[in-house]
Amino acid sequence: RSLRESVHHLISAKIDALAVGAYFHITDRSITCTATGSEVIFTGLFANINQLKSVEDIGLCWIEEGESVSLESLRILTPTVRAHGSELWFTLNPDAADAPVMTYIDGTRLDTRHTHVTFADNPWFPPSLEGERAHLQRVDPDSYQHVWEGVCRTHSDAQIFKGKYTIEDFTPGTAWADPLYGADWGFSVDPSTLVKCWVHENCLYIEYEAWQVGCETVDLARLFKTVPGAERATIRADCSRPETISHMRQHGFPGMRAADKWSGSIEDGVTFLLHFEKIVVHTRCVKTAAELRLYRYKTHRLTNDVLTDIVDADNHCIDALRYALSPLIKKPAGWVVFEFYREEAEKRAGGQTGSSAQPTQ
Questions:
Q1: How far apart are CA 50 and CA 299, in angstroms?
Q2: Residue 346 DSSP symbol
Q3: What pTM does this model have?
Q4: From CA 332, how far away is CA 262, in angstroms rounded?
Q5: What angle, rounded to 10 degrees, do the helices at 316-325 and 265-274 form?
Q6: More exposed terminus of the chain, fewer Cβ within 10 Å: N or C?
Q7: What DSSP string describes 50-86?
Q8: Residue 267: its H or E element
Q9: pLDDT per residue over 50-96, tens digit each?
Q10: With the C-alpha atoms ordered 16, 17, 19, 20, is the resulting torsion angle positive or negative?
């Protein structure tokens, strides 16, 4: 809307800093290179988009703060920049996944190159900002991912673990109870995961994780051995893959066993996790931290209201946590009775187990 809100001052300052002012003529509205005749003009898409239609021979158009550009502005701007070899450059910190500019980032356009840069790519990153960066990482991981890592904000009201977890370095105390281990199985798209966690004074501490997509069954033992103590521990795993549990028992993990599941066990497990005073994720457990940030409730497609159903995504480390904690999670009323009837049914079926041995009424 005005030169004060543009990058005019920034570019002028850099010209001075680089001591190349002799090659440029700077006015309050434009910058001209005296050596080539190229001109830099400044305007705002918000208020002046229609004026751009009459501008010709634009070779490069740089759109700063592209996350806020409207779809209508993009529709007008794109055909306006039409000189041979011309380019559109967008710089932005992604805010919403459905922002119009994201069509240039999500890979659907073959004529676009996307480069993701963060503070870690900046060789001049000032030490004075390191304290601020580290503080935000500890106290508000979701904001940290947006501000410092350039990740889209999530729907905060739909985030299940918003404000519940922190990311810290920690060392388990000698007085802590033994650690708990949980595993989830995946392959082609979903990862196989193993987590090591501790419960101490109503806090959950996640110390180690193993995570890999496309891990063959024969390679699972190698993956899980990266988690200290796992080979000697009781590991509760997703019971939907009994053949994998059997394989792991025979290949160095004799304590592997199936975790209990019941109707509503996901919701019960999430509720149990939320009852911890806080969840502390070790800085090395980057996949677990990402899932805790992304795990969310469904939202209404039209109104964006938060619903009660949980999105079945970003949940593999979280599922492993639920399995690890399953002996501590309160089961719904009637579970013990169901177990008794199942045992009685198995006895009457001659000790057989499986779908043929149904609990009686």
A1: 36
A2: H
A3: 0.61
A4: 8
A5: 80
A6: C
A7: GGGGG-----EEEEESGGG--HHHHHHHHHH--STT-
A8: helix 265-274
A9: 677 777 788 899 998 888 888 878 888 888 888 889 999 999 988 77
A10: negative
